[in-house]
Design a protein that fits this description.
TIM Barrel, globular, Phosphotriesterase, AryldialkylPase_Zn-BS, hydrolase
Amino acid sequence: MSSMIPTLTGEVPGAELGTTLVHEHLIVSDPQLDRDLPHPEWDEAAVMARAETQLQGLAELGVDTIVDLTVPGLGRDVRRVAELARRTSVRILVSTGWYTSDVLPHFFRLNGPGRLVEGPDPLVELFLRDIQQGIAGTDLRAAMLKVCSDRAGITTDVAHVFTAAAHAHRSTGVPITTHSDPASRGGLDQQRLLGELGVDLERVVIGHSGDSTDLSYLRELADAGSFLGFDRFGMSHTGSDEDRIRMLLALLELGYQDRLLLSHDAAVFSRITPPSWRAAHAPQWSMDHLHRRILPRLRALGVDAALEHQLLVENPRRLLTGA
């Protein structure tokens, strides 16, 4: 655990991270599909310009830092994101991990300890290199680990990713965030496995918890020590903001203000849910939605400046530094 946090424009003390959105994406892609089946809405220059404008807009709203959770499996391109970091005033933190909710590429299934091609676990090698040395031959280091399980639960390959992430967490102190399936109460299985693997559950975010309206489920996750990601504001196809606000206020009333994190899981461009689809089906799903619409609602409902500071500044800092 370190009070110094690697960003794409250099290390900063955790105390200087400021207002932080802990679960966002800038560009979600698929390198093979991008080459062999280019998406008709992808225009790199236009997307980069749009991303720069959006990031500068966030800075004007008071956002200091975002965490880009686009990891391998979602088309991470750290050089492209670093260019955006240089062109804007918002700090960007990046992540390592492997995004799959079911199976891994054959390379990971056949290479490693006790596998067809005997050797060290390449996932562990990847995660540690990204955190300790740099990503993809750069000196740009990851500040978070990202893992995923969904309705299928903890499959064999998903458990492999969780195990490698736990190893990297124990070695480096870097926190872990998850993609979870709230409908199946999937965060509980994630917590259980990570705990068995020696992970400090206070350095874990159970992602997408804000999509649940099951208060007992959310309390169980928080009571075990983890942060709850209320990280899909504006994502109307996975739940309503009214429900998210209602559950957030219920947890605040119960005293869980030190366990809550706010964000959007938004992207400037994603070939999975491209801009035309988002405009039609989730028009408020963008990284400024929290500051433009949700925070004013929360303030009107009694969330004061001190509590807002805890949710957007202190809780992210504690997660990222362990302090």
